[in-house]
Amino acid sequence: MKRPSWPSWMPIDPYIAALLGTVGLAALLPARGTPADVASGASTTAVALLFFLYGARLSTREAMDGLRHWRLHLTVLLCTFAVFPLLGLAAKGLVPYVLTPALYSGLLFLTLVPSTIQSSIAFTSMARGNVPAAICAGSFSSLAGIVLTPLLAAWLLGHSAGGFSADSLLKIVLQLLVPFLAGQFLRRWVGGFLSHNKKVLGFVDRGSILLVVYTAFSQGMVEGVWSQVTPARLGALLGVEAVLLAVMLSLTWYGAKKLGFGRADRVAIQFAGSKKSLAAGLPMASVLFGAEASLAVLPLMLFHQMQLMVCAVIAKRRSRDPEAVEVRAVDTGTGPVSSRAGSAASRTAAGTAPRSG
Hints:
Elements: H1 14-28, H2 33-57, H3 60-66, H4 70-90, H5 101-112, H6 118-126, H7 131-157, H8 166-196, H9 198-223, H10 231-258, H11 263-273, H12 278-289, H13 293-318, H14 322-329, H15 337-349
Helix pairs in contact: 1-9, 2-8, 2-9, 4-5, 4-7, 4-10, 4-11, 5-7, 5-13, 6-7, 6-11, 6-13, 6-15, 7-11, 9-12, 10-11, 10-13, 12-13
């Protein structure tokens, strides 16, 4: 019996549909009183579990091997944690005429989040780019983001993210960094189990994030933060994010060319350097923003869906480039070493759908 699949004509990613459904559930049935306390405790546990799994899955050996391409990884890190935040700071001039202060805080937080892993690999593979580089660049970005995103948020957002205090630092360390390091330490014992149960653990990942979203939006409904958002403001936010994505896609593609990178590397830089991770950003926001997390993650949720749709179109166009056709021709293993490495990794990542990250 054939398993039902998501209709190909649907314009929205199924996981985003699940997130929107969770938001709708929180709007209709927000958790209050004791259920809210239970949901908050479960959300805290879910965030710790997510970062434990991130640590347990990240291969230290692969990360060290990828350091040989340090110029590419440094370029992606600078795009993610320097260029993006600078553009976010420049958008402050849009307050209060285009964006409310709360939406701007969410937009700025979006620019501080690490890059994706899963969707960057999938799009790079689709476009016949340097897939091993995309794997390492996404992994390095996620690893750096565990430290850099909270620190940058505390510095740039100030009291919007709870300020930078000993309590907030301890909370970040206990809820994000300690589980991640525990996962790295236990990887040698649990790595095999994780490799053989990727599908089940994928449901754990996504289910945990849905729980975080429900808790954050429930708290936002109870606190009345949604009264600050109007359809006109949401439309303005979408417009600002469209410009932000277009600027980053252009900078990563043409900037990488100016820096002397070849086509395969430019593809990896474009997809890893222009995207933001919903999976990493949502739990971080729940830790950093508390009751304000629902508005803080709204720009990230919208940007995530936008980047998936736009990058899917770009990846398909890149796959028809003359150089990409050449790479496809040597996919049998008769071409250059770099092409064969990229092709082998492409086949590994071919089954990875760009649906989260």
